[in-house]
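I wish you would study the pair of lines that follows with an eye to the fold:

===
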Amino acid sequence: MRIKSFLSIVLLIYLLNADSLYSQSKNQAYINYIQNFHKLAMLQQAEHGIPASITLSQGLLESGAGQSELARKSNNHFGIKCHDWQGDKTYHNDDAQGECFRKYKHVLDSYEDHSTFLKTRARYAFLFQLSPTDYEAWAHGLKKAGYATDPSYAFKLISIIENYDLHQYDLHKIDVKQADHTNAQDFFSNNQIGTVTAYRTHQIYKNNRVKFVVSQVGDSYASLSEELNISEKRLRRYNEVNEFTELLPNTQVYLRYKKSKAARGYSHHVVKSGESMYSIAHNYGIKLEKLYKLNEMPYDKGAHLGQVLKLR
C-alpha cells in the first residue's frame, strides 16, 4: 500500500510539472489573441467555408498576435495591400519602401476582407473544394497558390494550429444569426491587444518536422541560447554557422539538427536571384551537406540562377 501511495504521489507531481511545462511553451500574446478573435474566425468558416483554424493562425502569424504596427494602428491583421482598394489606406515599409496597405475601422472588417480576398481570386478557388476541417490541406494549398513566398509558411500555420489546439474551432458551429453584422461589433471583442509579457519571447514553429524560432531585432545566438536553454555552441551547430557568424533579424533558427531531405510535397526548387545553397537548404530544413549530395554537386560549387535542385 505504501508503494502504491508513493507511486501515486510521484505520478501526480509528474503530471503537474508536465502541465506547467506545457503552459510555459505557450506565448501569452497568442493566447490573448485567440481568446479575443476566435469567434471572428468561426464566423468566417460559417459564412465562407474557410477553416477557422486557418484564418486564426494566419491572423496570428501575419499580425504578430495583434502586436504589429499595421494591426495596432490600422486593424489590418492579414497584411493585405491596397490592390483594387477604395477604402482608407496606410503606408509601411515591406518588400519596398512606403508600400500601401488597407486600413480598417474594425478588426471584423479585416477578417471579412481577408475572406473576400481568398474567395474572389481564381488562384484560391481550388481551396474551397477542400473540407473546411482539413487544416493541413488548406495550409499547404495556400502555399501552393502563392499566398506567401516563405517555403515554411504552411508548416508555420500547422505548428500554430496544433500548438494552440485551434482545430477545435473548426469543429464547433457558431450561431450566424446571433452574430448578424448589424450587431457584430457588439457581439465580438474588438479591443486592441496591449503589450503582454509572454512565457516565451519567441514562438516555436516546425519546418520539415524540426522545431525553429524566428530571430527578432536585437537577438543573438547567445541570447537565444539563454532563453531556449540550448548551448550556444549546439545552436550554431544545428544551424550550420561558425562562431563568428552574426544572427540577422528574421532568420530561422533551428533547435534540432535539420533533416536529410525536404518534407513531402517539396521535391524540387528552382534557384532564384540572391539564393545560395545554404539559404535554400536552411529554408527547407535540410542539412547543407545533404543538399549537395542529393544534387551530386561538389562542395565548392554554388547554385546558379534558374538551376533546378532536387530536395528529396
